[in-house]
Design brief:
Blueprint lengths: L5 E4 L6 E7 L4 E6 L4 E6 L4 E6 L4 E6 L5 E5 L2 E6 L4 E7 L5 E7 L5 E6 L6 E6 L5 E8 L2 E6 L5 E6 L4 E8 L4 E10 L6 E7 L5 E6 L3 E5 L5 E6 L4 E8 L5 E7 L5 H6 L6 E4 L15
Antiparallel strand pairs: 1-24, 2-3, 3-4, 4-5, 6-7, 7-8, 8-9, 10-11, 11-12, 12-13, 14-15, 15-16, 16-17, 18-19, 19-20, 20-21, 22-23, 23-24
The structure holds zinc ion (ZN).
Length: about 290
C-alpha cells in the first residue's frame, strides 16, 4: 500500500481507544482512557466534542436508541453524552477496570477488564435485557473484539498472550464455542491491542508500542503492514461516508517528555485513505 496514515485530530490523547464510527451522524466516537474522556469528532468540520467522567472509560458503544453504553471503571451502564452523566447498571468483581468493548450482531455489549495479576480479569456480555454474564474467565488484559462478516466467529485479543484468537460464536445465545489461535504475534514488534474486520473478513490489528497496523486474512496470512510515526497505536475502525477510511487511535502513554519531543503526533487520531477495503456499520446495543 502506498497510502500512509495522516493525523486528522491533534488530540494529544494520553491513551486514545475505542474508535467507533457513528454512521447516523458521520462522526467518530473515541475515548481517552487515562483522561477519563469520551470524544466525538466530526471530520467534516474538524470539531471534537469532549465529555469528562470521574473514572477511566475503557470503551463506549452506540445504542439503537439515543445515548451510549459505556464501560467506566469496573461498571457497565448508560452514558448520557449531552449531560455527561454515567448511570451504572452493573459493577463487576474481576479486574482493576474495564478496557475494550464492542457490540455483537444481536446487540449485546461485550467488554472485558484488565489486571496486573495474571488470569484475574474476565470478559463480560451485557444482554439487551440488561442481564450480565461472564463469558470468559482467566483473562489478564482484555482488548480487541471483532466479528467475522458471517457473524459466526468472534476475534479476541488478550494482549498479554500476544496473539489473535478466534471463538466460534453463537449469535442467538451469545455463547462462545471452540477457541483457536489465528495469528501469533509474539515475534512482531509491540503487542496486539484493538482490532477491526473489513467486509472481506480481513483483520486489522493495532500494535501498541509497535507503531503499526497489521492486516491479516482470516487464515492468518499477513496482507499489509502500515507504519505510523508514533509508537503506541491502540485501535482502528473503518469510517467515513462509505466506510472506506481507516481511523486509528494512538496514545502518548507511557512516553517521557524527551520521547514526546521525538513523537509530536503521539495521541493524535489518524486516518488512512485508499485502503481498498471497507468496513461494515458498527453493531448497536439493542437495549
Ligand atoms: Zn485497547
Amino acid at each position: 500500500m502506498t497510502a500512509k496514515p495522516e493525523p486528522v485530530l491533534a488530540a494529544g490523547a494520553a491513551l486514545g481507544e475505542s474508535p467507533i464510527w457513528d454512521d447516523r451522524t458521520n462522526t467518530l466516537l473515541w475515548v481517552d482512557i487515562h483522561r477519563r474522556q469520551v470524544h466525538r469528532f466530526d471530520p467534516a468540520s474538524g470539531r471534537n466534542r469532549t465529555v469528562t467522567l470521574d473514572q477511566p472509560v475503557g470503551s463506549v458503544a452506540l445504542r439503537q436508541g439515543p445515548g451510549l453504553i459505556a464501560a467506566v471503571g469496573l461498571s457497565l451502564g448508560a452514558l448520557d453524552e449531552e449531560a455527561g452523566e454515567f448511570a451504572p447498571w452493573h459493577t463487576v468483581p474481576e479486574g482493576e477496570r474495564f478496557n475494550d468493548g464492542a457490540c455483537d450482531p444481536a446487540g449485546r455489549y461485550l467488554a472485558g477488564t484488565l489486571t496486573d495479576s495474571p488470569g484475574g480479569a474476565a470478559l463480560y456480555s451485557l444482554e439487551p435485557s440488561k442481564a450480565l454474564r461472564r463469558l470468559l474467565a482467566d483473562v489478564t488484559l482484555s482488548n480487541g473484539l471483532a466479528w467475522s462478516p458471517d457473524e459466526q466467529t468472534l476475534y479476541y485479543i488478550d494482549t498479554v498472550l500476544e496473539r489473535i484468537d478466534a471463538f466460534d460464536y453463537e449469535t442467538n445465545t451469545g455463547s462462545l464455542g471452540a477457541r483457536r489461535t489465528v495469528v501469533d504475534l509474539r515475534n512482531s514488534p509491540g503487542r496486539p491491542d484493538g482490532l477491526t474486520t473489513d467486509t472481506d473478513g480481513n483483520l486489522w490489528v493495532a500494535m501498541a508500542k509497535g507503531a503499526a497496523i497489521r492486516c491479516y486474512d482470516p487464515s492468518g496470512l499477513l496482507l499489509d503492514l502500515i507504519t505510523l510515526p508514533v509508537p503506541v497505536v491502540t485501535s482502528c475502525t473503518f469510517g467515513g461516508p462509505d466506510l472506506s477510511d481507516l481511523y486509528i487511535t494512538t496514545g502518548q502513554w507511557p512516553a517521557t517528555q524527551d520521547q514526546l519531543a521525538s513523537y509530536p503526533d503521539a495521541g493524535a487520531v489518524f486516518r488512512l485513505r485508499g485502503t481498498g477495503s471497507k468496513g461494515r456499520p458498527v453493531y448497536r446495543f439493542a437495549g
